[in-house]
Write a structure and sequence with these properties.
Helix content: 10-25%
Shape: globular
Number of strands: 20
Strand content: 35-45%
Length: about 325
Amino acid sequence: MYHQRIWGGNRLRTLFGYPIPSEQTGEAWVISDHPKGRTTIRNGVYRGKTISELLAEQPDWFAPKRPDRFPLLVKLLDANDSLSVQVHPDDRFAHVHENGELGKAECWYVVHAEPGAEIVYGHTARTREELAEMVKASRWDDLLVRVPVRTGDFFYIPHGTLHALGKGIVVLEIQQNSDATYRAYDYDRVDQSGRKRELHIDKVLQVTNVPNKPAQIRAKTAGSRFLQVNHYLDSPFFTVEKWTLHGSREEESGDRFSLVSVLAGSALLEWSGGELTVKKGDHLLLPRTLGRYRLAGDMEAIVSFPPGQAATLRKAG
């Protein structure tokens, strides 16, 4: 599911070969069960079905007890221009103010960054009163913290964090299954109709964390001769790792489902009763009932799990 954005570009075609609908394609919702963009299964016996339909027909794929909703959403974002400075609410605030929506914690893996690219990641206000004064006076240069980024960087954006992608960046975003976003600043841009996009200053001032507390990422590396795992994050909402495969590796699905986004290379996935070749730009949902499976090839992938369900590395098969 593609979404045109005022800040979008064409890198989802040049990097991944996707048939994007315009030269301002900002987002591809690649694994999604949100009402604003539901993806469908591309192959296998459930081809053409949505994740909602899988939850109904195969609830044990996801959890011992069927979840009320699919918890995660995976996107690719192409920031050909800077995104608005924004903040997301937590679950409690979103439930009350956004018609039962989830909050939106998210994280970014930087797939591509032009030289000099940067993101907005936090603010300098020491009190909520100072934050309000600086926002209402449009003192954005004084307020916003800008951080340089490079390809391969990883960032966690908890609820209440002021943030924005800068131009020249493509990220893989893993987030809660939500679209609750409050814009603080949009560079006074206008859309094709000559209108400025809506801002949400009152809600921004209510949900932004003050003082700012940047999330600390301490990646841990483990693995074997054939598979290196960079473990980035265990949050209350998702666990995220990067897998780099060179050769053949056996894994076990265990008591978890996993989402796999292939960013480079290709591999053969084999399991009892089937096999599938996956390549750069493919996105997989591996059910918790899959059991033992084997990956063989040369591949880089971001792998995410529901909270508390990180993979357990074993000796190579």
